Amino acid sequence: MTAHTQGETHSPASAAGATLAPQRRNARSGDSSIPANIARFLLPAALLLVVLVIYPAVYSVFRSLFDDSGNFVGLANYATMFSASATQRAIQNNLIWVLAAPLITTVLGLIFAVLMDKIRWKTAFRLIIFMPMAISMLAAGIIFRSIFQQNPEIGTANATIVAVQSIFGDSSHYPGARPRDPEAISVADDGAMTTSTVRAGEPVLIPLVGVKPADQPKDAPPAAQPATDAGAITGTVWLDFARGGGGESGVIDANEIGLGGMEVSLVSADGQVAASTATADDGTFTITPPASGEYRITLPATNFAKGPTGFNWLGTSLITPVMIIAFVWIWAGFAMVMIGAGLSATDRSLQEAARVDGANEWQVFRHVTVPQLMPTVTVVLVTLTINVLKIFDLVYVIPPGQSKEAGTVVAVEMWKHFGNYSYGLGSALAVLLLLMVLPFMLWQVRNFRKGN
Fold first, then answer.
1. Mean pLDDT along residues 133-157
2. How many alpha carbons lie under 13 Å from residue 223 in its C-beta half-sphere?
3. Measured between alpha carbons, how far is residue 92 from residues 315, 325, 409, 440 in Å?
4. CB of 296 closer than 8 Å to CB of 272
5. What is the chain's mean pLDDT, rounded?
6. Predicted confidence band at 447 (pLDDT cuts at 50, 70, 90)?
7. What number of H helices and E strands is found in the chain?
8. Would 76-150+313-348+358-449 and 178-304 be classified into the same CATH topology?
9. Which residues pair with 66 in a beta bridge?
10. Phi, psi of 445, deg, nearest 5
11. What average pLDDT score do residues 259-282 get?
12. pTM, whole model, 2 decimals?
């Protein structure tokens, strides 16, 4: 009886083994409920993938083979698309974007990430650089269109350029100025003004009108009477107009201002410039002729040209670089954060070892830090390239009307054709855009699968 009881007694270990044995057998044989659970879990995502990605892509390929009326035309839409100058320009601009924007953004992100690792106020620095990511592309486009307006009173970039040019410029500009007496002072086709003949010792009065208040010198002193010098030609250039009216025409009145900074040339009888000078703040000038004889005083046309207005940033030649600058401003923070995350995972002992061996900071950065960051840098570069190929918002918002064709890209051309109900060409452009993005997407998927 005792032996029989001991034979039927089971230890805890044997009980657990008996319980786990069926589970191990089920795991080896396969539990049919596990694939069903996975299928139910993936079904919503698979439906969204089919509805939002696969079906539109397949239908775009199918629709590109038909014209706007629904008639089958084969590859005619593709032939029309590639023969259109707008499509060729869009592909060219996309190529410029791909070559410039991702590389510049990634390099800046790498530099910022390294700096962020070394400066004291890294949190504030990271916040400032990353902040543009919180702004929509549409809002960023409006901001940059305002910054690069050609009018210096609106555009910050040209306002800065004009301010610098005004500080270092050596002449003033009075656009719209004209002589008070056109018979006494002749005006050439280019706007230059020339007096009648003068000699040394004879003061010359050059009264002008038509200078707008915005172009008048600020805090200009009253115009002064020219001095008399027997060996020189003296004169005064002034605004022969008094605020509030009054005064005598052709006469320097007390409340009339001089036009300072104006270039004055002494021209000989054979038309050669014998000497030049600039008017003082009160409009007076003195020129010593190289020889006796008759001369003419000329105010060159540069005095009456428009003042510095900066660059036409939004013109056809600079519109693409301006949009690339806007893209870099937005996405540099993304590149910095991604590369910074990769930098935090690098082996710092290798950097210290390189410094111990005598390498300077540039050599450590180039030969140690960058090679360790290459997988992260590659992911960032490919991601930015995909975003650049699909760029739409900035290209649609920033260029003004006259520059839209010069800055167009494939995505904008596709939208234009769909907006004009040209679904065949629009679908062909959509397929072209898909083919442009697809290699980089596959490359990105490959990097993710490799664990990069």
1. 90
2. 28
3. 17, 18, 8, 18
4. no
5. 85
6. confident
7. 16, 9
8. no
9. 72
10. -60, -40
11. 89
12. 0.70
Residue pair 127/401 in contact (Cβ under 8 Å)? The answer is no
Architecture of domain 178-304: Sandwich (2.60)
* pLDDT tens digits for range 220-235: 888 999 988 888 999 9
Q: What is the pLDDT of residues 22-51, one digit of tens each?
A: 444 444 445 556 778 888 888 888 899 899
DSSP line for 148-170: T-SSTTT-HHHHHHHHHHHHH--
What is Dmax (Cα atoms) for the chain? Answer: 151
Place of tokens 């992100």: 109
Cα–Cα distance, 115 to 9 (Å, whole number)? 71
Q: List, for residues 345-399, the tens digit of each pLDDT value.
A: 888 888 889 888 888 888 988 888 889 999 899 999 999 999 999 999 999 999 9
* Chain mean position to CA 180: 46
Segments making up each domain of the chain, as ranges: 76-150+313-348+358-449, 178-304
Q: Please, are residues 87 and 79 in contact by the beta-carbon 8 Å criterion? A: no
Do the Cβ atoms of 398 and 141 come closer than 8 Å? yes
User: Within 10 A of 68 (CB to CB), how many other CB atoms are there?
Assistant: 15
Residue 37 CA to chain centroid, in angstroms? 51
Mean pLDDT on 191-209: 90
In our burial notation (b when 16+ CB lie closer than 10 A, e otherwise), range 225-236 reads ebeeeeebbbbb
**Token representation of residue 334:** 């993304």
Q: Which residues contact 333 (CB under 8 A, 6 or more apart)?
A: 109, 126, 129, 130, 131, 132, 133
φ/ψ of residue 334, rounded to 5? -60, -45
Q: Between 156-168 and 137-147, two packed helices, what is the crossing angle to 10 degrees?
A: 20
Which CATH number describes the domain made up of 76-150+313-348+358-449?
A: 1.10.3720.10
Which token pair is 153?
Answer: 């009173």
Decide: 193 and 206 in contact? Cβ < 8 Å: yes
Q: What is the pLDDT of residue 12?
A: 47
Average pLDDT over residues 404-420: 92
Sign of CA dihedral 344, 379, 125, 112: positive
What's the rounded Cα separation, in Å, for the pair 65 and 82? 15
Average pLDDT over residues 275-302: 90
